[in-house]
Design brief:
By secondary structure, this protein is of the alpha+beta class. It is 20% helix and 36% strand. It has one domain: Alpha-Beta Plaits (2-Layer Sandwich), CATH 3.30.70. It contains two helices and six strands; from the N terminus they run ββαβββαβ. The structure holds iron/sulfur cluster (SF4). The site of iron/sulfur cluster has 16 residues, from helix 1 and strand 3.
Amino acid sequence: MAEIEINGERYRLDVDHDLCMGTRVCIARLPGVFTVDDDANLSSASGDVLDPSLADAVREAVGDCPQEAIRLERLA
Ligand code: SF4
């Protein structure tokens, strides 16, 4: 799990492991943030608090995931 600030709001970035199929598109978009466990074939986001400059790449990863498995949820 990771967090990022976008337009002054904090968001949590996470992967739904019930949907992820390990296609690794997310790694192509954000290689320093997503990693795929080779045994489980599941992606996870890490990096704690991400640099806000990664906001566009985060949105791309969310939009390009073929399983719609990447969650970007605003934190209260
Ligand atoms: S792009 Fe989506 S389905 Fe593919 S590994 Fe990443 S989170 Fe999983």
